[in-house]
């Protein structure tokens, strides 16, 4: 609801509406072919500010439109496009960029649910995207090999694929999503 959008989030200085605005802005930009600077502080700030003050219905409408655009884009991508450089300053393939968007969506859905208690639980697809994104960046930054096998996800490796990596087993949400934030003073006082 419009009132829920003003709820402070665990993202420092952001409301639930700011979190939604950032993610919806990312989806809208990408659906429109604007990949430049996605995920950088200036673009994130622009996305939040452009959506600040929008009502829940406006945000939902924009999300619906962006989803249609992204689905149309995904329908025309072949393997060559998926494996090609993403462009826009992103140091990875288009497929990795889309994976980053999915991981961002899973994390920000959890950010919103943490504050509003909507009962969202990440789907296996969201967890796989987030886990794959994490393992890609571990490998990219030279972390030692590790096999990560979280609940409800297939095992993924980071690092050299032929090494004998240590195993990490844990509940997926405990590793990929931030812990619930303590109640905000305004929320705690109202309870």
Structural summary, described in words:
Helices cover 56% and strands 10% of the residues. The protein is built from 9 helices and 5 strands. It starts with a helix and ends with a helix.
What tags apply to this protein structure?
191 residues, mainly alpha, 5 strands, 56% helix, 10% strand, disordered C terminus
**Overall mean pLDDT:** 80
Cα gyration radius (Å): 18 Å
| Percentage of residues in strands | 5-15%
What string gives the helices and strands in order?
Answer: HHHHHEEHHEEEHH
| Spatial order of the strands forming the largest sheet | 4-3-5
Main pleated sheet: 3 strands, mixed
How does the overall form come out from the CA principal axes? Answer: globular
Into which percent range does the helicity of residues fall?
55-70%
Describe the structure concisely for a colleague.
With 191 residues, the chain is mainly alpha-helical. The protein has helices at residues 2-5, 16-31, 41-51, 56-76, 79-82, 94-116, 124-140, 172-176, 185-190; strands at residues 85-87, 90-93, 146-150, 156-158, 167-170.
SSE order and pairing:
Blueprint: H1 2-5, H2 16-31, H3 41-51, H4 56-76, H5 79-82, E1 85-87, E2 90-93, H6 94-116, H7 124-140, E3 146-150, E4 156-158, E5 167-170, H8 172-176, H9 185-190
Parallel strand pairs: 3-5
Antiparallel strand pairs: 1-2, 3-4
Helix pairs in contact: 2-3, 2-4, 2-6, 6-7
């Amino acid at each position: 609801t419009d009132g829920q959008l003003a709820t402070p989030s665990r993202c420092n200085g952001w409301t639930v509406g700011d979190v939604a605005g950032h993610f919806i802005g990312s989806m809208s930009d990408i659906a429109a072919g604007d990949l430049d600077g996605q995920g950088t502080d200036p673009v994130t700030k622009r996305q939040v500010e452009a959506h600040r003050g929008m009502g829940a219905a406006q945000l939902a409408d924009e999300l619906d439109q962006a989803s249609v655009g992204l689905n149309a884009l995904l329908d025309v991508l072949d393997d060559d496009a998926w494996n090609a450089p993403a462009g826009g300053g992103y140091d990875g393939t288009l497929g990795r960029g889309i994976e980053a968007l999915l991981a961002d969506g899973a994390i920000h859905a959890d950010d919103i649910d943490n504050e509003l208690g909507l009962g969202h639980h990440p789907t296996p697809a969201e967890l796989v995207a987030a886990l794959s994104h994490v393992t890609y960046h571990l490998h990219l930054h030279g972390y030692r090999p590790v096999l990560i096998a979280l609940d409800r996800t297939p095992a993924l490796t980071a690092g050299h694929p032929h090494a004998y990596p240590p195993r990490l087993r844990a509940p997926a949400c405990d590793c990929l999503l931030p812990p619930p934030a303590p109640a905000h003073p305004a929320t705690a006082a109202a309870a």
